[in-house]
């Protein structure tokens, strides 16, 4: 029956109904599912919507002989909308999920979606604790046609970009949702478990040893790593007082000496980089080399991953410089969307150029001149736009070399004083957060007082080689006279395998 309304007078029944509607709290509005992706245009299914994670507590047991992983993950989060259900990114078999202590229903969908429906809907702003019990064989799982879990003769390793987490813990798998971590791993005696941050403790009982690691600063999910195997571990301290822990597989063979000769310089290099980028942003440092067949390295936070192949030609300090530079550019300040990859890779490559200058093997200017002069205008190198390369070219060499060339063009345009102020100020401004290429341009304009839109467009966003007038304006390639190959070039180019994610 319709309410009776006459000449602006509301019937008593209708008045009661309207009062009741006004009294319904906002939290009683319909709850809806969180989005299955966080909204990244390159990877629409990566990450999830509706919540934000602040901490991961991972309690794991791993059997190297069979590659079996068993775990309980506790996620401390907050709802960012009224949620009827939400997703995690995960691949292993789930036995139970609890949300705020109560059992929740769950199912899998898509490539790596774990859909969770809590017993009671979640109100926006409310704290959420999610417990997931699981087990599986990570090396048997694939998503999007590949695996990010690398089986080794004595265990396994989780390390890849843009994703690796789904093979060993459930998460909101996108850099926009950074969190702190506690990682506790039970492995057979004689086997080591390496992860990010500081080693808090180890304890052994009944043939098993538990390794407890803590990362107390926000960390993107792809920067979380786990390596289980038989390692030689070295420890030390930087001049700045940061504890260093490095780990080397006992089965590196002919690569062992070169790997140690490179990675044992981690503390020295981090102290040197701090002179350019500001104080080292974490309370732990190191690197590890498992016995994998992969060819790349990765800036896993506080403890980069290096493949043995990085040292096949001898010591390779340049790749250590690259991965440690990422601790500021990529880890402390993470990208907002994967198309912002230039901020990570352009500056890490540029750090290698600065190291070349430090070692007297070619200045950053000479390296920039060489990059510009060595690629003719019809080289496909110039068709990749470092500022938005597309997912298929995200780790193309142009993102690194053309990306670093853009950094030098910026330096030449605004001068060293403003440039080095920006190098140090950028990590401080966005410390432990996220930022985009557009954010960087605005910050560079703010510091330098220069309009930079045209320069950024020319060097980062045009799918063609900047012409002679632009090169002259950016003081690159000596106005087209050509440029000799700096002595460091072959050594820097030998790290190009680092990009084959």
From TrEMBL:
Keyword Ligase tagged: no
Catalytic activity: Release of an N-terminal amino acid, Xaa-|-Yaa- from a peptide, amide or arylamide. Xaa is preferably Ala, but may be most amino acids including Pro (slow action). When a terminal hydrophobic residue is followed by a prolyl residue, the two may be released as an intact Xaa-Pro dipeptide
Region (Disordered): 478-501
Pfam families referenced in this protein's UniProt entry, alphabetically: Peptidase_M1 (PF01433), Peptidase_M1_N (PF17900)
Signal peptide range: 1-28
Domain Peptidase M1 membrane alanine aminopeptidase as annotated: residue spans: 315-459
SUPFAM superfamilies linked to this entry: Leukotriene A4 hydrolase N-terminal domain, Metalloproteases ('zincins'), catalytic domain
GO BP annotation list: proteolysis
TM spans (from-to): none
Superkingdom assignment: Bacteria
E.C. number: 3.4.11.2
Keywords: Hydrolase, Metal-binding, Metalloprotease, Protease, Signal, Zinc
GO terms for MF: alanyl aminopeptidase activity; metallopeptidase activity; zinc ion binding
Residues of the Aminopeptidase N-like N-terminal domain: 54-223
EC class (word): hydrolase
Cofactor(s) the record lists: Zn(2+)
Gene3D superfamilies on file: Neutral Protease Domain 2 (1.10.390.10), tricorn interacting facor f3 domain (2.60.40.1730)
Family named by the database record: Belongs to the peptidase M1 family.
Protein name: Aminopeptidase N
């Amino acid at each position: 029956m319709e309410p009776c309304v006459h000449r602006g007078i509301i019937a008593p029944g209708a008045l009661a109904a309207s009062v009741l509607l006004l009294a319904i709290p906002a939290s009683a509005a319909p709850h809806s599912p969180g989005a299955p992706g966080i909204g990244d245009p390159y990877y629409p299914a990566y990450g999830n919507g509706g919540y934000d994670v602040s901490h991961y507590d991972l309690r794991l047991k791993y059997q190297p002989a069979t590659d079996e992983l068993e775990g309980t993950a506790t996620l401390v989060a907050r709802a960012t909308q009224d949620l009827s259900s939400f997703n995690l990114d995960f691949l292993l078999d789930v036995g139970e999920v609890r949300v705020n202590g109560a059992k929740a229903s769950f199912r899998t969908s898509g490539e790596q979606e774990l859909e969770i429906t809590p017993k009671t809907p979640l109100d926006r702003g409310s704290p959420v604790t999610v417990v997931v019990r699981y087990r599986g064989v990570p090396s048997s799982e694939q998503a999007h046609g590949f695996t990010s879990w690398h089986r080794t003769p004595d265990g396994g390793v989780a390390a890849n970009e843009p994703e690796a987490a789904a093979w060993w813990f459930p998460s909101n798998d996108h850099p926009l949702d950074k969190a702190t971590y506690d990682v506790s791993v039970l492995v057979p005696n004689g086997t080591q478990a390496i992860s990010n941050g500081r080693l808090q403790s180890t304890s052994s009982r009944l043939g098993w040893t538990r390794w407890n690691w803590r990362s107390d600063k926000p960390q993107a999910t792809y920067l979380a790593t786990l390596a289980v195997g038989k390692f030689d571990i070295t420890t030390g301290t930087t001049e700045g007082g940061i504890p260093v822990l490095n780990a080397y597989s006992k089965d590196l063979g002919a690569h062992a000496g070169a790997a140690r000769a490179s990675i044992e310089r981690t503390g020295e290099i981090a102290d040197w980089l701090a002179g350019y980028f500001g104080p080292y942003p974490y309370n732990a440092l190191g690197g590890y080399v498992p016995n994998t067949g992969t060819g790349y390295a990765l800036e896993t936070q506080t403890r980069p991953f290096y493949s043995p192949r990085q040292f096949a030609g001898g010591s390779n300090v340049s790749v250590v410089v690259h991965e440690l530079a990422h601790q500021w550019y990529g880890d402390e300040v993470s990208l907002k969307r994967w198309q912002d990859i230039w901020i990570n890779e352009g500056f890490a490559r540029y750090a290698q150029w600065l190291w070349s200058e430090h070692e007297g093997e070619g200045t950053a200017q000479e390296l920039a001149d060489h990059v510009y002069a060595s690629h003719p205008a019809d080289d496909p190198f110039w068709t990749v736009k470092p500022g938005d390369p597309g997912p298929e070219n995200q780790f193309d060499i142009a993102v690194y070399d053309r990306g670093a060339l853009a950094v030098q063009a910026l330096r030449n345009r605004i001068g060293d004083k403003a440039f080095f102020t920006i190098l140090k100020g950028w990590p401080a401004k966005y410390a432990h957060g996220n930022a985009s290429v557009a954010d960087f341009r605005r910050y560079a304009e703010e510091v330098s007082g220069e309009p930079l839109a045209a320069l950024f467009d020319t060097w980062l966003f045009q799918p063609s080689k900047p012409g002679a007038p632009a090169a002259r304006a950016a003081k690159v390639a000596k106005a087209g006279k050509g440029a000799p190959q700096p002595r460091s070039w072959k050594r820097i180019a030998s790290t190009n395998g680092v990009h084959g994610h």
